[in-house]
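Hello,

Our lab assistant flagged a job as stuck in the queue for most of the afternoon. It eventually completed. Since we weren't sure the result was trustworthy after the delay, we are filing this so someone can double-check. Below is the sequence as submitted and the structure that was eventually returned. Let us know if re-running is recommended.
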Amino acid sequence: MPCEHWTEQLDTYLDGELPAAESHALDEHLRGCPTCAAQALSKVQLKRAVHAAGQRFTPDPAFRARIRKTIAAPKPTLWTRSWLPVFITATAAVLLTATAFLLTLQHNRTGEQQLISELVDQHVAILASANPVDVVSTDRHTVKPWFAGKIPFTFNLPELQGSPFVLVGGRVSYLSQSPGAELIFRVRQHQISVFIFQDQALNNPRANESVRTDLSFEVRTWHHNGLQYFVIGDASPQDLDNLTALIKNAG
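-- returned structure --
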């Protein structure tokens, strides 16, 4: 089937509106077609940029209601007017503090979302690449030493014997201009990226979280011994949980 058929469905696919059967077929096509996968990655990046630009702080409805109630309240007496400046000053201070706190939370949350989005983009780029890894090996004793001198930390790889997972290889990845490891695993027809970075290289590392992102990617993240781990893929949640458990046991 020509690529034009698939590229016409990309927007519907990215919006999650494509029927399950067609979405699965397009998934399979993207894994084998670098051209279409690159177009999908470009559209994902554009959607993320638009989403980030559209995020703004919106006053809480309860806050609006309090303002309206204050405006409609009876005029204050002489005694009240004498205390009104003090009350307004104190209220303004509280509101400014609360607003700053909310904006800080929103900023941190946006930063965390952008971090996850950047890693998902790297994972999608790997799916589209003809040469996804720099060291090709299913032997963990070959892959781990390859990173020596290329990244400023070491890590342990899990024993996969008896599991459905296969180690494809690894490559050096970068996040916030800091080098880290990206390990590629395969389970059945699905490819999973495992990113490892130092905590100090990330502004807002998360301790433990399960996330479902755009394009139906599952994400698992945790930190251990000064390292932050991210497991990203379109495999089932149970597969990601199982691989996460294997990696944690190896650490």
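-- support follow-up --
The delay was a queue issue, not a problem with the job. The result is valid. The longest strand covers residues 165-175. The two ends are 45 Å apart (CA to CA).
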